Every structure is written in structure tokens, then in C-alpha cells.
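Holo model, flavin-adenine dinucleotide. Inputs:
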Amino acid sequence: MKRISRRTLLKSVPAAAAVCSGLFPAVSQAAPAKKVVIAGAGYGGSTAAKYLKLLDPSIEVTLVDRKDVHVSCAMSNEVLFGYKDFKDINIPHKILADRYGVKFVKAEVSGLDPKKKRLITSAGDMPYDKLIVSPGIDVDYDEKAGFDAEMQKVFPHAWIAGDQTLMLKSMIDGLKKGASVLIRTPKALYRCPPGPYERSSLMAEKLKALGGKLTVLDPNPKIMSKEPLFKNGFEGIYKDVVTYIPNAKVLSWNKEKKAVVTDKGTFTADLINFIPDQKAGRMAFELGLVKEGGKWAPVSPKTFESTIFKDVYVIGDAIDSDPVTEMPKSGVVANCMGKTVAENIAREFRGLEPLPPIIGNSCYSLVTHTEGIWIASVYEYDPKVNKIVVRNGANGIPEKRTVENGRNVKSWGANMLADTFY
Ligand SMILES: Cc1cc2nc3c(=O)[nH]c(=O)nc-3n(C[C@H](O)[C@H](O)[C@H](O)COP(=O)(O)OP(=O)(O)OC[C@H]3O[C@@H](n4cnc5c(N)ncnc54)[C@H](O)[C@@H]3O)c2cc1C
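Output:
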């Protein structure tokens, strides 16, 4: 019988299967443990940390975040309207440490020494063989138009979950009979394309019960995700409540008068939820991972390695997605990128070639508090265009919203949290 070498066998087995079957060889006792440092413990970073340890427990994995509890943006719209508790979207990082042996460090990340391969943090410098950075987003105020950080105290965005979520929730709880609300959606590219329209739908449901009105000001030419399904809600069950205005350019705002001035007129409301445009999280800029004048971190579409620094990978919302991928900025995509990078780093430490990414995105949204919709797509690397593109035909939405899909929103969310943080 022909003998198959261990190396040939390993090459033929996907990394996750190799780990489960014990085929990944243990690192020799003599070799120093490989060090992977992960900056940012949200959807991308936590997944990468967990899966690296699953793939190869001998790798020393250090996960750094400024907070010891992650507050999930996914499902935060349900918290705003009381369909979930705030505590349901709070996940302590201690879980990954206790269950998988990830070393969690609570610290502010502030810089990078790529030559010495050290991440600079408030808890000291951290040496790495590989660094994964998943900083998420920051809001991008247009200060020329008078928008600044003060604005979020009056017109909360609640697009980075935490205090902002609680602030907007208490304003929503305080809405009175006949109230008026304005939601300004962000200009693409932004975190979670369907998110602003899910929030608008749930707001419309609330205002319908109060006999109120909702104006949705959208700088984009159309609804940016699951369009026919959200449109059906705005023009159907919510037609007496919602005025949807596309291509609306906001020019300035007035805190005292609770007014937003746009090229389509001036709008006032009792409650304004101003979701600003977005850019990569500040950490990406501080680490030098964004080019001068840029807003997002450029990466290779094959590996998610930074095109600026070797052995540094950027994943999640912060990547410069437009030139390299058609994938949306979503938690599911960040989670899949975390797994892809973890697998390829574990392979490289074993002398194996990286595998090109194949990434699935499924995303559920509520249109009423009981009825849901979804979108599902598969993305793969296409060497002809050097880009991650939608696999032919693998992109779909349902015909209509249903109660069954509404129930699935809950199980989808629970599965997502479990795969990432538990
Ligand atoms: C309202 C809303 C609803 C959403 N719904 C969904 C959904 O249904 N499905 C879905 O797939 N996605 C959803 N998303 C999108 C999802 O939340 C993001 O795509 C996902 O969080 C991106 O993961 P990330 O790792 O890039 O960033 P994050 O998850 O934001 O993680 C970034 C981490 O970095 C840390 N950090 C940043 N800077 C520093 C620093 N200097 N030092 C230390 N730590 C730092 C932060 O504390 C944070 O923990 C939604 C988003 C919103 C706003």
C-alpha cells in the first residue's frame, strides 16, 4: 500500500477538521510558543481568538480590549424598543479566557512598532508573531458643517452599542402621544446596511401606536439592503406614519430648535436619531493602518493582511471593503473573517499555504416586533478580478416578511453570539 506522508495528509484536510481529528501536529516542546495578539474583542477579534485556540491550543493568544464586556450592536435595535434586555447584549470577555485559554487583557491600544513587532497598549508593549486588528468603526462627523462629538449628546446615534443605546432608549421610552421622530441614516459604506431601516421600521411601529410621525432622511439614493421588504413596510403598514426621503444631504443642525437643515428642507422633531457617516475605528488610524486621507484600512482580499504592514491582519468593519470585496460590514462577516484569518495563521505556523476565503453572510431583521425578513449570500475570492465577489446566484431575500422569520431573528442572534463570544 502506498504510504501517504503526514505533510501530504495535512495539506488535504481543512484546518478545522484537522484539529477535531487530532491531525494538527503539536508544536515541538523545544520551539517557543507562537504569539498572536488580537486588538479589539468584538465580533472579528473574539472569533479569531476563540478559533485560534480551537485550531491549535499551543498558540499563545492575547486578546486586548478597552472594555471587559462587549456590548453587541447586533440586536441593539431590539433593546431600544424593549424586545430584549440591555443585559442580553452584554458578554464578558472572561468567558473566552475561561473556556479556551485565551489571555484577555483590558487595555487601551494606542500604537504599533511594526519593525520590533510590538503592539503598544496602556498595559505595556505586547510582542507578536502575528497581529490581528479588529477595531470596528468610529462615527465620522462632518465638522465643516458644524457636526461634532457634542451632537451625539443631543441627537444620539446609538451606532456603537453601550451608553448611546441606553440614551436613545430612554428618549424612545419618553415619547408621548402624537410624537414626531427623525432618523438620519448614514451614507454608504457603513456598519450594518439593513440596520437603519430595521430601526426605522420598529420606530414606525411604536409611533403608529402613539399616533405619531417618522421622517427618514437617507443620503443614499435608495434603501441599501433588503429594499423591497423594507419598502413594503414603509409604503404598506406604515404608510400613514413614515415619510422616506432619499438623496437627502444634511447641511447643518440646530440643537436648541431640534432641527436638521437639508437640501430638501428643514426638519424638526421631538426626537432626532442622527446616525453619522462612518470610518474605521480610531485604533486603525493610530496604528498607521489607514493611508493618508483614507477612511478605511486597506487589506489583501486573499488573506486580509494589511497592505501597509506585514504580519498584521485587519478584519471586520474597519477594512477598506470597496476595492477588495462586495461583502457588507456585518457581524457575521467579521466573524467569518476572524475564522478565515485564524485558520490561515494556524496553517502558516505549520508551513501550510493559506486557503482563499469563502464567506457566508446571513442577516435577519425585524419589520414589526413579530415579523422578520432575511438576506443570505455566499462570497468567494475571484483571482480574475482579485476581489471577493458574490458567488453566482448565491444571494437572496424572501418574498415577504413572516412571523416565522421573526422567530428566526431570535435564534439567529443567539447562534451568532454563541459562535463568537461563548
Ligand atoms: C444597530 C445595529 C444592528 C446590527 N445588527 C447586526 C445584525 O443583525 N447582524 C450582523 O451580522 N451585524 C449587525 N450589526 C453590525 C455588527 O455589529 C458589526 O458589523 C460588528 O460589530 C463588526 O465587528 P468588528 O469586530 O469589526 O467591530 P466591533 O464588534 O465593534 O469590535 C471592536 C472592538 O474594538 C474595541 N476597541 C476599539 N478601539 C480600541 C482601542 N483603542 N483599544 C482597545 N480596544 C478598542 C472596542 O471596544 C470593541 O470591542 C449591527 C450594527 C448595528 C449598529
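The longest strand covers residues 372-382. DSSP finds 13 helices and 22 strands in the chain.
Archived with the compound record.
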